[in-house]
Amino acid sequence: MARKKSQTMKPSGSVSRQHLDAMIEKATVDCNDELEQISGLFTMLEENLALPFNTALLGVDVTVEEIDLNDAEEIVAICKRGSERQRVSLLDLPLPEPKPAGTEWIEAYRRWAKGRL
């Protein structure tokens, strides 16, 4: 399925706060608590984030192969380099340029998480 570029992207490539808020609302509309909200955001990431993609962590190129929930119920990226794998919080994951399709959902998750901290 072909993806269209979002019409709400700012010139810098980031999504407007209003659009992020609408995305968060869409992902969490029927949620009763924080764990359900995380699950809703995780589902939207699974459905929309183009994987795998390459990025750099501490100057080292890695491949983000998948996303998952860790034991603390945080969304993490599973990063791989060679035979090594590492879980990195999506809150801390550097995004490459150009950004892969669906990264607006990472921005939405970050905005949601910032609001609850």
Report on the architecture of this protein.
By secondary structure, this protein is of the alpha+beta class. The chain has one domain. The chain is built from three helices and four strands, in the order ααββββα. It has a four-stranded antiparallel beta sheet. Strand 3 and strand 4 (84-89) form a beta hairpin. Residues 1-12 have low confidence and may be disordered.
Brief descriptors of the model:
alpha+beta; single chain; 34% helix; four-stranded antiparallel sheet; 3 helices; 117 residues; 24% strand
Could you write a compact summary of the structure shown?
With 117 residues, the protein is α+β, with helices and mostly antiparallel strands. The chain has helices spanning 17-28, 34-48, 104-116; strands spanning 53-57, 60-69, 75-81, 84-89.
Low-confidence stretches: 1-12
- Strand order, main sheet: write it out: 1-2-3-4
Query: How many DSSP H or I helices?
Result: 3
Q: Which percent band covers the strand fraction?
A: 15-25%
Profile the largest sheet: 4 strands, antiparallel
The overall pLDDT average reads 88
Structural class: alpha+beta
Whole-number radius of gyration? 14 Å
- Strand tally is 4
How many discrete domains?
1
- The percent range for helix content is 25-40%
Shape: globular
Query: Termini, distance in Å?
Result: 36 Å
Helices and strands, in order, run as HHEEEEH
